[in-house]
Amino acid sequence: MQVTLCRLRTHQWCFILFNVILFHALLFGADFVEEYFLHSLPHVDMKILDIKDKARKLNLEPLRGNPSKYYILNQPEVCNGKTIFLLSLIFSSPGNGTRRDLIRKAWGSVTTVQGYPILTLFALGMPALVTTQEEIDAESQKNNDIIEGIFLDSSENQTLKIISMTQWAVAFCPSALFILKADEMFINLPGLVDYLLNLKGHLEGIYLGRVIHQDIPNRDPHSQEFVSLSEYPEKYYPDYCSGEAFILSQDVARMVYVVLNEAPVMVPADVFVGICAKSVGLIPIHSSRFSGERHITYNRCCYKFIFTSAEVTDAETSLAWKEVSDGKECSLFETYYGLISCKLLTYLDSFKHFHTGSAKDNAVYFGN
Ligand SMILES: *[C@@H]1O[C@H](CO)[C@@H](O)[C@H](O)[C@H]1NC(C)=O
Ligand SMILES: *[C@@H]1O[C@H](CO)[C@@H](O)[C@H](O)[C@H]1NC(C)=O
Question: Where are the transmembrane segments (predicted)?
Answer without folding.
Answer: 12-30
